[in-house]
Amino acid sequence: MTSTISDYERIVQIAVADALGLDPAEVVPEATLIDELGAESIDLLDIMFRVQRDTGIKIAVSDVAALLQGGIPDEEFGDENEVVSDVGLAHLEKVLPQFDRSQLDGPLKADQVLGLITVQNLIDLVVDRAATEAVR
After folding, report:
1. Torsion of CA 5, 134, 63, 118, to 10 degrees
2. Residues 61 and 54 sit within 8 Å (Cβ to Cβ)
3. Chain centroid to CA 125
4. What are the two backbone dihedrals, phi and then psi, of residue 15, each rounded to the nearest 5 degrees?
5. Nearest to 111 by CA among 88, 128, 93, 132
6. Is the entire prediction scored with pTM above 0.85?
7. Which candidate, 44, 35, 82, places its Cα nearest to that of 62?
8. Which residue has better confidence, 131 or 49?
């Protein structure tokens, strides 16, 4: 059976809702998993497990980290105070369509970057991985 993008959207929405004890209607694409929906690190693992169980597509925390940092070395992505550099901010603007550095009220700290991930970003990761696996 071949899944469509809307199938993946629904699977991710349900996985997030179930893992976080939310109504699926609350899990909108633009909602951030951590800052708005209240996910914690362990919840992200639970969400990824649920997605894998329901789709066969494995998304790991390292996949999210790779998306966010894009292979940029730590010392280039942020400075010694763990503030994301211009290089890091430019990369985030490329990979996170919703991210706009002009909206920041101050420097973006490295430990805040994971909080930028939205439901849509997770859907996009699943869809991209599904497409990659379909080519194999």
Report:
1. 0
2. no
3. 7
4. -60, -45
5. 88
6. yes
7. 44
8. 49
